[in-house]
User: Fold these one by one.
Assistant:
Number 1:
Amino acid sequence: MESNGGPNDNTVSKDTNTDIKKDDDKMVNAIGALGRWQIILCVTIAVPTKISAAWQQLGIVFVAPATSFQCTETNLTDSIQPATCYRDCAKYEYFTEFENTIISEWDLVCERAWMANFTQMLCMAGVLIGSVVFGFIADRYGRRPALLISCLLQLVTTFIEPFSTSYWMFAITRFFIGTTVAGVLLCTYSLMMEITGPRKRELMGWLCTVPYPLGQVLMPLFAYYLRSWNKFCLGIAIPNLFYLVYYFALPESPKWLIAQGRLEDAGKVMTQAAQWNNRPTENMVDVAKSIASENVDTKESQQDKANYMDLFGTRRLAINTVCSCTIWFILGISFFGSNQYIGQTSSNPFVTVALAGVLQISGITLTAFLCKVIGRKATMISAFVVCAVSNACLAVPPEWYYVRLVMGIIGVGCAAGAFASMYMYTSELFPTVTRNMAMGASSTISRVGSMLAPYVAGLTTVALWLPPAAFAVVPVLGALTCLFLPETKGKKLADHVA
């Protein structure tokens, strides 16, 4: 019987049967590899959370933009120079295309200039902490509670931010916003990967990753029409009210429920999924029991207290953990290195931010296609090699403007594509009971890399060629690290450490 609306059920069934023949994934056989249920969840959960995450994490560009200043009240009788600090200055005048920024709001210039960048550092520190905390919560207590907590916290903190009455209130709020960004990014991705069949994960990975750069493309529209920092923050906070719907609509991952032995609950979620995908709904609890019995022995199936030490539970997992963290660290440095040049190609922040988002969408789309065709491992190695060559070309003389522009564009696309591919690769390298902890640990190491990257970029004080050389060598190390990882293309997701 054909379905009225939604994805083509015959196609889903055909793909699913191929999956089962190859991987014996009974859950995919029961609910469908990628049907109307998965698409609706992706559109209502992955897309809004990823777009909002981009706004919250990157919005500092428009909250604290480059701002010129000049002292207007001083005891000096000589002419006052612009962008010059005077010890007895009582008042500054600011020149920017925005009505008001946090720089002009709290006089973040001269001896207080460091405080503008410190807010973004706190946000990244929040992402680092949130990756660990929400990764643990998601694996210990479930994807649904972890995602609900992070979404609710983001809703509250983003509405507090525009009404901050002091700099430190704003800065501390940015820290908590950073923790929520980590939670929604990690938990959403794991949930969507766990309800998608092996042969459809590349497409789902693309659907889950593209909304982030799409949010980066849309963000300048808010900034263009809301040119005050508090109006802008309020504007990008209002869409988060949609998160309230998740309390009623967000399901738990059936794979996580089965891994925890909650077979009745898993059967209910699988029944709902089968109904939406127009598949048979009978005996879903029996299917869950069958999956649980085939995963591991009875003792292992009771493992519901997984912790970060389980990431080293076997030799294979230990290798995967070390390599994954290393690659994410390298991506943190490489992504910043590629963006270093693109961020300097235009003095117009609206155009620059939107352009960077478009370039990332292109890179993510290309690597998603390559993951489907040649596999995760070869795609990661290829992206790293091209990124290395592109970054090395940035060492050419400044007069070769177009060469540097093209190489910078290619570097940004490859770095973004490699990041997107590694999200999917990492989710496939680890079992259900430790998947979010693995992604959280890897993401944490990535933030350390991104924090170190500015110091690498600062090597221009030693020699102009040093930063491009460093940003070229680092991706090569990433490509070599990939050689130690197994290929996961088309493989069923493991549930337990064993």
Note: The longest helix spans residues 401-429.
Number 2:
Amino acid sequence: MVVCQFIVAIIGTVLPKDPAAVKAMIAFICIYISFFASTWGPGAWVVIGEIFPLQIRSRGVALSTASNWLWNCIIAVITPYMVDSDKGNLGAKVFYIWGTLCACCFIYSYFLIPETKGLTLEQVDRMFEETTPRNSAKWVPHSTYAAEMGMTEKPVEKHVEHTSDHEIV
């Protein structure tokens, strides 16, 4: 995604009026959208649903959703001013800003988003108590929530009873 943003910025800066360059920019914007729509876009909703502790999960998801809507609104409002020729006059150079922000998101996610694959919500809470997001991929749960609550069956011991004629198992 970062690469697509910077390619659009470079092409738009070097060849702003070339029809082939404009087609290439449109193609890379579409590639960016497809990558975003299949990774970071829906992935953010999964992450916010898992990373908050159970006690504050509903409030955390609500605040994250409100923040998402707020920033989407801000971006939608300021972008026309950034690219308009009588205001910011950035044109395609705005993609340098978007590419840099995209790179910051990559760094943020690499260092601060934990790996929660295959864990229950309770195990994610326990993981945060015991490790850091950077080391979360190596963390292994010690037990399951059901075992901690005493909801699992105890192993059945095999008892063999001997009688004179046959054995009863």
Note: The helical segments are 2-14, 19-38, 40-51, 57-83, 94-112, 121-130, 145-148.
Number 3:
Amino acid sequence: MAQVVQRRPGAQEPEAQRPTRRDLPWPIRFVNTTVGMKWVMALSGIMLIGFIVFHMIGNWKMFLGNQAINHYGEFLRELLYPILPRTVFLWIMRIGLIGAFLVHILAAYRLVLLNKKARPVNYQSKRNYIAANYANRTMAVSGTIVLAYLLFHLADLTWGVSGVAGKGWQRGMPYENFVASMSRPPVAIFYIIANLLLAVHLYHGAWSMFQSLGVNSPKYNVARRYFAIGLAVLIGVGNSIMPLAAMLNIVK
């Protein structure tokens, strides 16, 4: 016979048992940890670094003339055509990159919150930045500027937003649009400064992502340092020479 439990008048009903953190799937529990967030930042950063490098190499075709880079732009729009409709695969890649970018930003923001929670009181004395270099200390600033640069870059050369893009912007004409935009010295200088800050950001990101993935040994640290420096120089110089060449009428 079932036992009837009597409650006193005015007693509250017991609350439904809420799932604890242990009840969540392992991937979610892992991502909610500091180590998990660093893994997310590292993996999304690898995706973004790959895109930046290949995007830069493709854009170097502008030095071969307008036909070379315009043909390259059309090639990207026809990837996997006719297996998929025109531009579909390009948009799949764009959505994947946007997702990686958003995940990277959210993971960085989450890490900042976790760090503040771990140390709610600021340092009482001036910090000694022997281990933390300039790139490390300015990651938030350089990342914010790079985000603003990305939005401006899309409005300027991809979307052709009126008042932002160069005069006479034409869809599907990347060479002419780039030259028209970079012919404006303030815009070209902004691109150069933003890409130099991107290089600073990538330097620290390329150095720290190996540590986040557990590859941290004195045996490899020298190679890690050279890789981070080489990537930063490649991106900083490689992306800056294009607006500089257009501003100086080397490319016209």
Note: Residues 33-120+133-247 form a domain with the 3 helical TM bundles of succinate and fumarate reductases fold (CATH 1.20.1300.10).
Number 4:
Amino acid sequence: MPDNGPALRDVHVPHVSWWPLAPGWWVLAALLVAALVVGVWSWRRRARHRRYIESVLVELHTARARHASDGDNAAFAGTVHQLLRRVARSRDPRSVTLAAGAWRDALASMAPKRDVSRLAVLDQVMYRPDAALDIDAVATDVDQWVRDALSPRAGHGRRRAHVVS
């Protein structure tokens, strides 16, 4: 090779530090933090709602245990009916005044996928101590109805008008 050409040096890549980060990384970090905050908030909200539903159902479990010891169908029906009324009032304040068919319609509208036939007759059974009542079936129906009526998908924002029959 001839020595009369220009003297070339090796190419050196400049040192690029990882800090400070480029703006795109800051945006990505902010999005990740926001997603984490929303996820934690959502998880805590669902956990709080589950605890609320379980605290509502404690009264059902207590009534069931009390019925197992004393066998009083009327007392069980009265306690469960009061529980249903309180839950229904939290969904629709006008439901407190409903009776008979309107009460049944209100129960059905708050948990449309559930059969509410056993729940609708509790207001009659609680005044008849000799009435036959399938406690296990009623307790299961009440548990499922409360969970459905209080579920976040139940549309708490929509209030339905019930006509008293």
Note: Residues 1 and 7 are 12 Å apart (CA to CA).
